[in-house]
Amino acid sequence: MAPPGEDGTLLGRALAERPPSDALNEQILDAAREQFMTFGLRRSTVDDVAKRAKVSRVTVYRRIGSKDSLVSACLLREYSRFVMDVDDAVAALPTMEDRLVAGFVAVLKHIREHPLVGGLLRLEPEIMLPFLTLESGPAFLAMRGYLADRLRRAQRAEGRPETDPTPVAELMVRITVSFLLNPVSCFELDDDEQVGAFARRYLVPLLSAA
């Protein structure tokens, strides 16, 4: 399996837009992650991140950019780290439908339990919204591109007609984001079994449109 960012998809391009990975950039992003986890986005500034990273404010701006750029870079880094875990969780499953169900369960569980992303979604959903919707750019496009690429690969592997799966991938990502941002629902999604049943009943039928 190709590492995230090396498969030519929107995921690859979105990850390629991140600041180059080197020791200083990672130091700044580590500091931003800790700052956002500890104080949230609303109460954090670029100065706070610079102080925690033991660098100047100018260095943060030159290396990463504004506060919004820091948040986007942090989210993309965390996202790229768990993409391979999700791939590993579904790789051995025999059908596109099975992989979709297992992938939806893995993504929802991972993000809910993630100390940065899940924590911010619980505490500051209104601030996180722009970073997880189409208007945010990189994070949304990375998620949509990753899923579209996996659906396209499954079409080929299973001999299905090759159609553009991007609209279906976008619907699935938007559904996932809506549950993460607002968990109050008539659907019971409290454990993996319930999440899997939801995915099989409501998401799998979308594959017929892909």
Automatic annotation (TrEMBL):
Cross-referenced PROSITE patterns: HTH_TETR_2 (PS50977)
A Gene Ontology molecular-function term?
transcription cis-regulatory region binding
UniProt entry keywords in alphabetical sequence = DNA-binding
| Statement: the UniProt record of this protein carries the keyword DNA-binding | yes
The record places domain HTH tetR-type at: 22-82
User: Which residue ranges does the Swiss-Prot or TrEMBL entry mark as DNA-binding?
Assistant: 45-64
Record's Gene3D superfamilies?
Tetracycline Repressor, domain 2
The answer to keyword DNA-binding applying to this record is yes
Q: What positions belong to coiled-coil segments?
A: none
Name of the protein this chain belongs to: TetR/AcrR family transcriptional regulator
| Species in which this protein is naturally found | Streptomyces sp. gb1(2016)
